[in-house]
Structures are given as C-alpha cells and as structure tokens.
Write a structure and sequence with these properties.
about 100 residues, mainly beta, four-stranded mixed beta sheet, about 0% helix
Amino acid sequence: MLTFQTQSPDDRLTNTFDFTTELAAGDAIELASVNLIVMPDGLQVSPVSVAGAVLTVWTQGGSASTTYGILCLAQSAQGRAVVGVAQIFVGPVGLDTGG
C-alpha cells in the first residue's frame, strides 16, 4: 500500500500511482478510475493525467485528523489489469505541507 503525503483540508495536492514495475516495457495505462474505499465525508479524489505507466490524481479537502483509503483500477493498452491502493492522512486546517 502506498502512503501519500499528509495534507491539510485546505490543500489540493497531486499524488501518483506508478505501475511501471507491473507493466511490460512499452505498455501504458489506457483506462483508469480512482475511488475512495474509506469514505468519511470530505475528501475529493480525481484522475488528472496518465503518462505511460503513471497515473496522477488530485486529492483535495477531507476532514481533519482522518485517514482515507484510495483505490485505483487501471487497464493497460496490452490488456493487463493493475490495482493500486493508497492511504492519505488529512491533518488539521493550516498544516504546512507545502501544498
């Protein structure tokens, strides 16, 4: 499981799922979705871009002092299905995360 950088509820940060080691050389992500698997109110997660085997997502908001789980399901151009799971902790409002 990946652990994304801690963020504040007022941050909007980019995070990545990197499937380079799961895909064959030259293969790339073709389809992807990201969903919350631990769903307290507040965190928004959305895919932003795909570059080869790397999916970049935005995380924004969330409830202070809450850990969220994020599930990424992707399919490659060569038909391989890959799964990524990450957790992200949302700290207090005003936490300086550099975001």
